[in-house]
Structure formats: structure tokens, C-alpha cells
Amino acid sequence: MPIRALGLFVAVLLLVSACHPKPGIPPVPQPNGSRLPLAPGHWTGTMGETYVNFNIDRVTPTGVAININGGLSSPYARNTPGHPVTFTDRPTTCKINPDGRSFDCLRYKDMHIDNGLLCGVYILRSEVYHPCFVPLRQ
Fold first, then answer.
1. Could you count the other beta carbons within 10 Å of the beta carbon of residue 12?
2. In this structure, is residue 24 part of a structural domain?
3. Count of domains observed in the chain
4. In this predicted model, what pLDDT tens digit does every residue of 102-111 receive, in sequence order?
5. Does residue 117 register a pLDDT over 80?
6. Which ranges constitute the DSSP H helices of the chain?
7. Cα angle 52, 53, 59; round to 5
8. DSSP-derived 3-state class of residue 17
9. 13 in helix, strand or coil?
10. Of 33, 44, 92, 119, which has the highest C-beta tally within 10 A?
11. What does the radius of gyration of the chain's CA atoms come to, in whole angstroms?
12. CA 13: distance to chain centroid?
């Protein structure tokens, strides 16, 4: 009987451990309409077929120093003079809006931190995107 009792104990132990929540990847935050204070950081994500790395290097009372790079996310992308596969924008400083919690650049408008995400509007010719880039954890 001791072996049978040991087997029953092991079976119960396995059942209990199977019900215990396992550590996993935390869920990706979602925008909730908040406007957090601007802060340095690195956000990343896709916008259409383009993968974007958006860096806020420094925040001052009047401006936000940024640099952006990325590339086409399509495996079939071909590097041509008019449509390069990768890009790097020159670092620039963008004007902080009167609300103090958003900034505008040439094509990026109303960029703000919403629940940890960097959200805003991107306008290029007739295309308008509403990206929300996720923070890159280092």
C-alpha cells in the first residue's frame, strides 16, 4: 500500500501544480487616452509596411530631441533609389506643444506618451497613420 499511496500523492501533486499560474510574458499595454509627461526612451513598432525605431534622446522645456530609423518589414522589399529598404532620419529637435505633454515634428504630429506607448499621427502625402509604438525594454 505505501507505493500506491505514494503514487496517489504524486498524482495529486501534479494536478495541483498544473493549476498553478505560470509566469508568462506580460500583456502589451494598450492606449487608454492618458497623456503622461514626456520622457527619454525608445519605442518601436510598425506603421504600414515600415518597421520604426523611435528614440526620444532628451526632453527640455521647449523641445524634444529625437532620432528615428527603421526599414521595410516585407521580406520581398527591394532596395531601389526611390524606395530604400532601410532609413535613418537625421537627429532633430521637435517643438513641445502648449500642453507640455506632446510634440510636433515635420511629419509626426501630436506625439505623446499614452499608458507607456508613444502615440500620435504620421502624415506623408495622402497617407495618414495613427501609430502607437510600444516601449522597448532594455
1. 10
2. no
3. 1
4. 999 989 999 9
5. yes
6. 2-19
7. 130
8. helix
9. helix
10. 119
11. 23
12. 40
